[in-house]
Amino acid sequence: MSTRFTSRIDIAGPRGERFDEILTPAAVDFIAKLDNAFAGRRRELLDARRRRCEELASGERSLEFLPETRWIRNDSSWQVAQPAPGLEDRRVEITGPTDKKMTVNALNSGAKVWLADFEDALSPTWANVIGGQLNLYDAIRRNIDFESNGKQYRVGDNPATIVARPRGWHLVEKHIRIDGRPVSASLVDFGLYFFHNARQLIARGSGPYFYLPKLESHLEARLWNDVFLLAQDELGIPRGTIRATVLIETITAAFEMEEILYELREHAAGLNAGRWDYIFSMIKTFADSGADFVLPDRAQVTMTVPFMRAYTELLVSTCHKRGAYAIGGMAAFIPSKDPEVNATALEKVRQDKEREANDGFDGSWVAHPGLVPVCDEVFSEALGGWPNQLGRLRDDVSVTGEDLLNVASAGGEVTERGVRANINVALRYVDSWLRGTGAAAIFNLMEDAATAEIARCQVWQWVRNGTKLDDGTAVTPELVRQWLDEEAANVRADLGEGNRLDDAREIFEETALGEKLPSFFTTCAYARYLTDVR
Ligand SMILES: CC(=O)SCCNC(=O)CCNC(=O)[C@H](O)C(C)(C)COP(=O)(O)OP(=O)(O)OC[C@H]1O[C@@H](n2cnc3c(N)ncnc32)[C@H](O)[C@@H]1OP(=O)(O)O
Ligand SMILES: O=CC(=O)O
Ligand SMILES: [Mg+2]
Fold first, then answer.
1. Is residue 1 part of a domain?
2. CA separation, residue 457 to residues 253, 286, 439, 489, 508 (Å)
3. For 13-34, what is each residue's pLDDT tens digit?
4. Catalytic residue among 35, 275, 448, 505
């Protein structure tokens, strides 16, 4: 179905129940204003990404702290905005998709913040995108009570502060078209949430807050800042009301952390160490740069390997120098009904949070309500009565560009088990994503889009480099195809009827075994499988 709101805007896609409450003419018009103002710059920045990527791959260029922005790093006079209402204490942040049940559960989880996810944990079907907006709309207005399986769901008295995470700049939303062009998915997710909820949130003592994913440069942060300025002006909301926490989850952004905070300083709340996409970015950026950049099995790339420590140490010291919160990342372990597995998971999460708290982070992420208490306990002890650790300036930290790029420092090895694990988890996750679920529990771990990206990129890198396994066998396309057949058969036996394994396999083959390494599996898989709109 296709409905014309104005001469320029088309909404294509099924009209779900109450979708018209989100896709009002005024809201869609607001998206169109954002698109008109920023679509061109978005395209230019995506071109700049591509050019930089090619230059890095060909060795024409290397990564360094930018000489032209040294003045920003050397100017000690600037700080980011003061913490906004509801964001003063961020010791525990729960993340999760915006389906109805998870929305209520996350808000009631005891976490200080809920990252309402339209990104790594989203399968961007039209139903999920607009349904998620509806759930947020209802939850903010305390109008989301329901019953399911005999359990009452109702937002309690002290809910978490909502921080919405729109999709990244690389994605489009094909169901909203302006002059025939699909609109930036970032602008759709941001725009609809902001348009409908900013005033409500402010009236309730909170505000319109965002996590910004997958930025690759400070110029992309500048674009977001300009989006915020226009959006606030359009709705007559004072500039500086929005707060944004930027995920540092690409290697190029790690070289521009201070500049990113500077660009957004009027709206900046902090930086987050998005470890999974960071690993993905590291592999992708240097996939063709030779053996020195080949990472070992995914399970061996932990937060304690030197190049990952360099990144988190730099993040904390950069944030605290500028009065910004440093928020830790996601340990993938989730609670289990098996007491032994559960105890191990809780212990692993505890160790992860202890390391972050000791390093000076102001809070961290958990994937499940059952992990809120452990994160709370660890950070409460480290904070010692304060809402943050901004006072810990970490002047002792000195991280060089070489430290950030020292992939070889990870050591470790590549094994048959590691290759098979990547194939297996990628198939399972992509199957889930194609069926509309963007976060899944797989072998007692929380897996999302970043996992599948790491898994298929590692395979590509190992094949490209003819990497030798621990037993001396080289990783070849033929070997991977043989293991792919075997792993697909195993996975099929578990998934049963109605699975999308054949499609998942096709996506894996294209994105892990093709001649070129695609930037994201989500972009092509979205266009091919999640929408009929061409
Ligand atoms: C790389 C990154 O970007 S990390 C951030 C993105 N990823 C995420 O946000 C993933 C968040 N986590 C999840 O989605 C889920 O925890 C999963 C999919 C991993 C597991 O979910 P489930 O299989 O439902 O777990 P489980 O059965 O243990 O859930 C128990 C209860 O907790 C709820 N729950 C589990 N995780 C969450 C969550 N993150 N938010 C809110 N509620 C949750 C379930 O809805 C369920 O509620 P119920 O008792 O009312 O039915
Ligand atoms: O978004 C978080 C990450 O780790 O990736
Ligand atoms: Mg991420």
1. no
2. 19, 10, 19, 22, 10
3. 888 999 999 999 999 999 999 9
4. 448
Contacts of 46 (CB under 8 A, 6+ apart): 169, 170
Atom of ligand 1 nearest to the CA of 448: 7
User: How many structural domains compose the chain?
Assistant: 2
- pLDDT tens, position by position, 281-304: 999 999 999 999 999 999 999 999
CA of 334 to the centre of ligand 1 (A): 9
Atom of ligand 1 nearest to the CA of 103: 41
247 C-alpha vs ligand 2 centroid, how far in Å? 7
DSSP string, 303-319: TTSHHHHHHHHHHHHHH
Instruction: Tell me which of 380, 402, 424 is where a domain ends.
Output: 402
148 in the same domain as 87: yes
Do 396 and 464 lie in one domain? The reply is no
Q: Give domain status of residue 408, yes or no.
A: no
Query: Could you tell me the CATH number of the domain that includes residue 233?
Result: 3.20.20.360
Q: Are residues 150 and 110 part of one domain?
A: yes
Site to probe by mutation for ligand 2, drawn from 247, 271, 302, 366 as the one with most ligand atoms within 8 Å of Cβ, is: 247
Check which CATH number belongs to the domain holding 422 and give it: 1.20.1220.12
pLDDT tens readout for residues 342-372: 999 999 999 999 999 999 999 999 999 999 9
- DSSP characters over 85-125: TT-S--SEEEEEE--HHHHHHHHTSS-SEEEEESSTT----
ipTM of the complex as predicted = 0.99
Per-residue pLDDT, averaged over 433-454, amounts to 98
Residues 370-409, buried b or exposed e (16+ Cβ, 10 A)? bbbebbbebbeebbeeebbbbebebeebebeeebbbebee
- Per residue in 202-218, pLDDT (tens digit) is 999 999 999 999 999 99
Q: Is the pLDDT of residue 2 over 50?
A: no
Q: Is the CB of 102 under 6 A from ligand 1?
A: yes
Look up the domain containing 460 and give its range.
413-530
Name every protein residue with a CB atom under 6 angstroms from any ligand 2 atom: 120, 247, 249, 274-277, 329-330, 450
**DSSP secondary structure letter of residue 528:** I
| Mutation test residue for ligand 2: of 298, 330, 365, the one with most atoms within 8 Å of CB | 330
Of 368, 402, 436, which residue is a domain's last?
A: 402
Give the pLDDT confidence score for residue 1 in this predicted structure. Answer: 45
